[in-house]
Amino acid sequence: MSEQVISDLQCHLSELFGEEVSVEVCEERELEGMRISVVQMSYSVRSTGETNQRKHYRQTAVVLVQDDLDLPDFTLEPTPRGIAGKLFSMVGGMGDINFTASPEFSEAYVLQGWIEATVRELFIPEIRNFFSTDPRWSVRGGDERLVIFQKNKMIPESDHDEFVKESLQISALFQLGEEHLDSRPDLRRKTEPDDLVATADQMGGIVGAMLQRQLSKIRITKSELNAFAASSPPRRILPGMSKQVVGEMLPVILIGIVMIGIGIGFAALCWFVGTGNSRYLAFPVSLTAVAGAAIAYFANRHRNAKRRVLRQGKLQKGRITNVTATNTQINNQQQYVVDLEYGSEHDPQKTQCKVYGVVHKKAEELRESEQSVRILIDPRKPNHSICLDLLIVFDDA
Fold first, then answer.
1. How far apart are CA 18 and CA 76, in angstroms?
2. Could you give the strand order of the β-sheet that contains 109-113, starting from the edge strand earlier in sequence?
3. Which single residue of 80, 107, 362, 369 has CA 20 to 30 Å from 49?
4. Is the pLDDT of residue 83 over 60?
5. Considering only CA atoms, which of 60, 58, 69 is closest in space to residue 34?
6. Within a domain: residue 395?
7. How confident is the model at residue 35, as a pLDDT?
8. How far apart are CA 174 and CA 186, in angstroms?
9. Residue span of the structural domain in which 202 resides
10. How many of the other CB atoms lie within 10 Å of CB of 131?
C-alpha cells in the first residue's frame, strides 16, 4: 500500500474519531465494490474530568468503504459503566439517542449523531436488535465509510478472518438502514453548522457549554458574509471571520514577548551577577529570548497576512481545481491545500488556500459540482488567498 493511501486513511479516521489517529494496515480486500481494510489503530483521548491526562487506545478495526453508501455522521459505543458512566452523565456529551421501542439497545449502547432525526431513521429495528444482544461492538460512520471495532481490543491475526466476517454482517445491516433512509428524502445526511448549534443547545453540562462558547466565537451568518463580500476595501473584519481565518494569534504573540523578557532578564542576571564560569550560562539562557522572538515574529506575520487579505484582498470569482491533504495536523485537524483558478478561460490565474478538518469535504463538493466560489487574493502575494465560500457559515437567525 502506498504512503499516500495510508495518509488518506489516517486523515479519514482522524476526522471520524476527532483525534490524531495512527494506522498500521494489516491487510486489504475487495468484495463486490466494497474496499475492506484491516488496521491496527492507535490514538489518545483526554480523560473525562481530568485536565492534563490522556487515555491511550490501541485496537484492531475493519474500515469499510463503499462509494454508493451515504451515511450521516454517528458514533455507537457500549455504555460506559461505573465511575466513567457517572462522569459521562455529569459533564454531558453530544447526547445519547434513545429508543423507547428498544430499551435493551438504549441500555447497552450510547448512540450519538449531529442530526438526530436522520440517525434515528438509520437505526432500523434490525440494527438495534443485533446490537442489543451483542454489546461488544463500537462503530463510527459517515458518508461512504464505516469503521467497526471493539474498543481498545487488539484482534490476533489468526482471528482476522472471523473479525472481518462479523464486520461484514454489521455492514450489511447498515446498508439496509441506509436503504431505508432513501425513502426519507426530507432528512438531511450532511452535517451543517446549525446542526452543531442545535445539538449544543440540547446537550447541557460542561461539554455543551464549551461547545456553545466555541460556536459563538466563530459565528458568521450568510447575510453577514454576503455583505462583507459586497463591501469595498478596506473591509471591516467580522469577529467570527477573524476567529476562523486569523485564529488566536495575540496570545501566541504575547507568549513570545514574555519569553523574550524572561530570556533577556535571566541572561543579564547570569552575566552580571554570576561569577567565573557560571557567567557563561547567559548564552544558553539567551536562546529562550531567541525562541520567543521567532514565535512572536511568525505569529505576527501570519496575523498581519490574514488580516491584509480580508481587509484589502481583491475579490475574484473562480473555481476549485484540486484538494490535497498535507502531512501537517494542527489541533488534531488535518491540513489540506485547496488549488483555485480565477480569471479568463484563456488566461487562468492560479492561487491556493489552506483548510482544516472536515472543511475539505465542502471543498471537494464544490470542486465536483464545478460551482463558482468567491476568492480574496492577497494584494502582495497573489498565490496566497482566502476562499470565502469555505468558511463555516450559519443560517440567519
1. 14
2. 22-31, 34-46, 54-65, 145-149, 138-143, 71-78, 109-113
3. 107
4. no
5. 69
6. no
7. 93
8. 19
9. 193-220
10. 22
